[in-house]
Amino acid sequence: MIALMLLMASVSLQAQLLYKISGKGLSEPSYIVGTYHLAPASFVDSIPGARQAMDSCQQVYGELPMDKMANPDSLAMMQRAMMLPDGMTLDKLLTADEMARLNVYMKSVMGMDMTNPLVAQQMNSMTPMALSTALTMMSFAKKSKSLDMMNLLDSYFQKEALAKGKSVGGLETMSHQIEVLYEGKSLDRQKEILMCQVDNADFMEKMEDGIFNAYFAQDLDAISKAMDMKLNSHCDATPEEEAAILSNRNANWLTKMPDIMAQKPTLFAVGAGHLLGDKGVLNLLRQAGYKVEPVK
User: Fold this and answer.
1) pLDDT digits (tens, 9 = 90+) for 222-275
2) DSSP secondary-structure letter at 48?
């Protein structure tokens, strides 16, 4: 019975996105909010206490500082990371059968495929991971006709801070995110992941819908369950890949967050997946001695 009560308490504490961080010598509390990278900025009004947390903090930290991401050097770095080496194209990397399956999937997502010269010109030189990411975003945009890439929740917090004269920072560098997202996997593994997306479109859509619905219900427990869905095949992320995307980055952030919070009360806005589980940021903060409590 005690175990069941603890489990119920744990689940109930997961049913929100905004948390207050206090204790361990902090003169004023900081906050952390879980974001969804394709959520509209307007969703902030659905997160209890989010605007008040913004007002009470003197700075905002995201995964990356959005203003620096938009500068020419950062954009050029990202573009280089998303492109295959000179002379290599996807139609050379994939077999004829794989290319045919990719074209069917692309047509279902964007209404065109690599047989269209303009599409091939833009996409045939992309790395498999870059194309996979682009197709995922297009699939989401197709379902969410109101998606405005210029007004998303992640960038909202930073834009609002800058508009109010507050400082903005990032827990990571652009080069580190590029390494994690694009360069940390061999081309063979990237190709494998892309074809898993192509060949398991229904499963991928079910997972994406599960994460989407759970996020907008502000239910971290349901997000965790959706993220943990498996095909039980080579398509699933390996433990090393999962660690590179989540737990390794979480641990790295925890080496920086104490000093950041000690300098100024801070609102951290990071992907909600980083808050979850034993190796999530919420638990790591508690292990470090901070009081972390949900904002209702």
Assistant:
1) 999 999 999 999 999 999 999 999 999 999 999 999 999 999 999 999 999 999
2) T
Place of tokens 């948390």: 19
Burial class (CB in 10 A: 0-12, 13-18, 19+), 55: exposed
Nearest-10 crossing angle of helices 96-110, 128-143: 30
Which residues lie across from 43 on neighbouring strands?
A: none
Place of tokens 């109930």: 12
Residues contacting residue 199 through CB under 8 Å, at least 6 positions apart = 101
Q: What's the start-to-end Cα distance of the chain, in Å? A: 26
Sheet holding 59-62, edge to edge: 167-170, 59-62, 266-271, 30-35, 18-22, 291-294
Nearest to 67 by CA among 161, 182, 180, 134: 161
Distances (CA, A) of 22 to 32, 161, 290: 11, 21, 6
The first and second tokens of residue 33, run together, are: 């909010």
How far apart CA 46 and CA 54 sit, in angstroms, is 14
Question: What's the pLDDT tens digit per position in 135-173?
Answer: 998 888 777 666 677 788 988 999 999 999 999 999 999
272 CB neighbour count, 10 Å cutoff? 23
Whole-number Å distance between alpha carbons of 5 and 20? 23
Specify the 3-state DSSP secondary structure of 56. helix
Query: Which of 164, 162, 167 lies closest to 264 in space, CA to CA?
Result: 167
